[in-house]
Amino acid sequence: MEIEWPPDLKSRYNEVMKRLTEAGLRRTKFRQNLFALFFETEPYALSIEEIRAHPIVQSPDTVTVYRNIEALSRVGLLDCVFDEKGRSRYKLSEGDGPKLKIACRDCHATFVRSSPVLPELESVARELGYSGLSSRWEIMGYCEECAEKRSAEAV
Ligand SMILES: [Zn+2]
Description:
Layout: H1 7-22, H2 29-40, E1 46-47, H3 48-53, H4 62-74, E2 78-82, E3 88-92, E4 100-104, E5 110-113, H5 117-127, E6 137-141, H6 144-154
Parallel strand pairs: 4-6
Antiparallel strand pairs: 1-3, 2-3, 4-5
The structure holds zinc ion.
């Protein structure tokens, strides 16, 4: 059964599915559910354990989750951020080009933004003769909500 998407998500979902097909990956039920999960849990980046435990993906086996996460990351459909414990967390990667990830240390709310500064920074590598560039830009901090909680607890 196809998932019923609200209009704003429908176009994003179609775009993600298009990129999936273009990357030569099949549109499996599990991948469809996985994308639904990432939309549902925005803006949080999810660990493998959280993905496995979520009812939307219908408790698949660990190997299925790992293989899919690996395949989707390889073709650039997922972004990976590392949390404070060094654990990988994932979220959908939309749009091309270098991106800046801004993540909360407490709740893992993660925002991905592009910035004209990033291609400029990559040009430093290009000047050194490097090609096929990929780069990882991350800022960690506390989101507004978590910062408020922290200051309330400190009193
Ligand atoms: Zn937070």
